[in-house]
Hints:
Low-confidence stretches: none
Radius of gyration: 30 Å
Shape: elongated
Helix content: 55-70%
Amino acid sequence: MSTSRQSADIELAIPSTQRPTRLEGYPSFAQFIASDSDAAIYRKYAHLSARNLLYLQSELHELQERLQSLDREDAKDEHNQDAQKVARNWKYYSDPLNATACQHRGLQADIRMKIREY
């Protein structure tokens, strides 16, 4: 090993019993960043975040259109008591045996999950 190479890596010149016991790399760098607020440098990934939000908005818009379509279908038949009850009363909306309610609840669950993600 040449002298210039030895002097370039000072840690290798230190006997292993005298080397620091901390783990180098991400753990020590994270500790350094946490110890000095001016050292906190993080990428924002602004382009990726914006693109992701646009996709989420598109997905939410599609879910909204589907919900509005269900509402329009239910509103077409004024005499559809089942749809009217589901739209007005939690007891009917939450009934697991009611097909109209199940359709609405399933879509609403999808919307709820997507809004959380958004």
